[in-house]
Specification:
Helix content is 24%, strand content 17%. By secondary structure, it is α/β, with parallel strands linked by helices. Helix 3 crosses helix 9 and helix 8 runs parallel beside helix 9.
Length: 537
């Protein structure tokens, strides 16, 4: 992460803030989606009293709506992001597991992104931060509906840097000599440096993680300013590196007691607070700001992972293995979520509706006055009645796909029906202690009543009246869901790999390190697929 302290985040871009004037009232609202990475439900102070590092997010909750039963569409990076931007589960859009730095493909090109829909109805569109939906050719965000892109094409641990930060296991900095590059480290990238893109140009390789948060904040402000100057409504998708490892927080004050994770969480909170300040400077009421997470904490990172709050997945923990990221336990997909839109979304409101990141797509499409893409089915709902406080009803049924734990990638292993949650497969994810839960298939399924067992500790007794009463409805819902997916217009992602597509600003240097400013470097031309000259600043 970048060195964006709460003080810096408010002071650094003041020159930019001074230039911001309230924008004219549009018929179409502006949208800002802030997506945190690997953040836990309990990482928000408004959700979990033990968390003290999020005063700005807590203020956002007090001035807007907090969702306490809100879920990511998947429990790992690429599938979750694909679902947010398409409104469709990976079983439909084809993105069932993560893409690699050598991935040839990405989110299938026949899938329509939220940015493309909004662009077609006049929006200025920008993506800042992590992409992880393909970087080669037309899978790059510049060809998926975004007028502007600034960020890292995948996770911030998928390449070496000179500022490696905190990770488990710790990773070395990028090598500067060819001999060093041959030293392999488990779970570390040592051969290729992490790239930072502006549109299709690599502007820094390796990325300086110490300044990344500040750069994201600046670029977000510049995008908002440019959109305001253009007189067009805007959509900004801000996908933060926080709270994914490696963590690179500001220097810890003496005896702070917060630890590395807490310091990084405080930095993220300050960044979000500053984005809210920029947004408000354009006139309160013009912009819907929606904050949430892509999945739960990465448990195997131990003290560098977030808090799940009460969503501990106790049944799984008793058997070993993780019950957070990659899993379909609540800790894997129940994420913090806040919505802020003064004059439209009531303040100090807590929603208990069962909602998902899948709902962002159809909701924003409706609010923009656009129409959903034809010839496909969507898993998300238009939840604007919930946002406006007119209703507190969301999904009756919500599907949770396998995201790297036991079972087939993308397969629907768990189903939520009202307060009941049914597991057909459990296990397969690594915990902090190194244990991996045994793979278990459940037929009939394990069923938990989350209203009285949010810890998922004790499944219903199969012989009980409650279990026998709800099982037929769960079985029907599960069968109907599988049938609906099987008869839909389903896409298939290309997961093939080729080392030649790895982003590299200068292959002549160890780890693809860029030369001095002004040096021309070869890079893949996204229009022709051939090598072209790009400037690495």
């Amino acid at each position: 992460m970048g060195t964006l302290s709460p003080q810096v985040v408010l002071v650094l871009p003041m020159m930019l803030l001074g230039l911001l004037a309230p924008q004219a009232a549009y018929g179409q609202p502006n949208f800002i989606i802030i997506l945190a990475d690997d953040v836990g439900w309990g990482d928000l102070g408004a959700n979990w009293a033990e968390t003290k590092e999020t005063p700005h997010l807590d203020e956002l909750a007090a001035e807007g709506m907090r969702f306490v039963d809100f879920h990511s569409a998947a429990s790992t990076c690429s599938p979750s992001r694909a679902s947010l931007l398409t409104g469709r589960l990976g079983a439909r859009n084809g993105v069932t597991h993560n893409f690699a730095i050598t991935s040839v493909g990405g989110l299938p090109l026949n899938e329509t992104t939220l940015a493309e829909v909004l662009q077609d109805v006049g929006y200025s569109t920008g993506a800042i931060g992590k992409w992880h939906l393909g970087h080669h050719g037309r899978h790059h965000p510049s060809f998926r509906g975004f007028d502007y892109y600034f960020g890292i094409p995948y996770s911030n641990d998928m390449g070496c840097t000179d500022t490696p930060g905190y990770n488990l296991p710790p990773c070395p900095p990028c090598p500067r000599h060819s001999a060093a590059a041959r030293v392999a480290r488990k779970d570390c990238y040592t051969e290729v440096a992490l790239p930072l893109f502006e549109n299709v140009t690599i502007v820094q390789q390796p990325v300086n993680l110490s300044s990344l948060a500040a750069r994201y904040a600046e670029e977000a402000a510049r995008f908002i300013q440019r959109a305001s100057d253009s007189g067009r409504p805007f959509f900004l998708y801000l996908a933060l590196a926080h709270m994914h490892v490696p963590l690179v927080p500001p220097p810890l004050p003496p005896a702070s007691g917060r630890g590395i994770y807490g310091a990084a969480l405080s930095e993220m909170d300050a960044l979000v607070g500053w984005i809210k300040q920029v947004t408000d400077s354009h006139g309160k009421g013009n912009t819907l700001l929606w904050f949430t997470g892509d999945n739960g904490p990465w448990a195997q990172k131990c003290e560098l992972a977030g808090r799940v709050g009460p969503c501990v997945g106790a049944w799984q923990r008793q058997r070993g293995g993780s019950s957070a990221k990659q899993t379909t336990w609540e800790g894997g997909h129940r994420v913090p979520a806040l919505a802020y839109w003064p004059g439209h979304i009531p303040a100090k409101r807590t929603s208990h509706a069962l909602l998902s990141t899948l709902d962002i797509f159809p909701t924003l499409v409706a609010l923009a006055g656009a129409t959903l893409p034809p010839n496909r089915r969507f898993d998300g709902l238009d939840v604007s009645p919930v946002l406006f406080g007119w209703s507190d009803v969301g999904h009756k049924v919500l599907l949770h796909p396998n995201s790297g734990a036991a079972g087939k990638d993308g397969a629907i292993e768990t189903l939520r029906l009202a307060q009941y949650k049914a597991f057909y497969t459990t296990g397969g994810a690594k915990a902090c202690d190194g244990s991996i839960g045994p793979v278990e298939h459940h037929q009939p399924p394990l069923i938990f009543n989350l209203d009285r067992d949010i810890q998922e500790q004790e499944p219903l007794d199969v012989a009980s009246r409650e279990y026998q009463g709800v099982l037929p409805a769960i079985s029907r819902a599960y069968a109907q869901a599988l049938e609906d997916i099987a008869t839909d217009n389903v896409s298939v992602a290309d997961y093939s790999k080729d080392p030649a597509v790895t982003p590299c600003c200068n292959a002549q240097h160890v780890a693809c390190r860029c030369q001095a400013p002004g040096t021309h470097i070869p890079m893949l031309d996204h229009h022709t697929g051939t090598r072209a000259t790009r400037l690495c600043l």
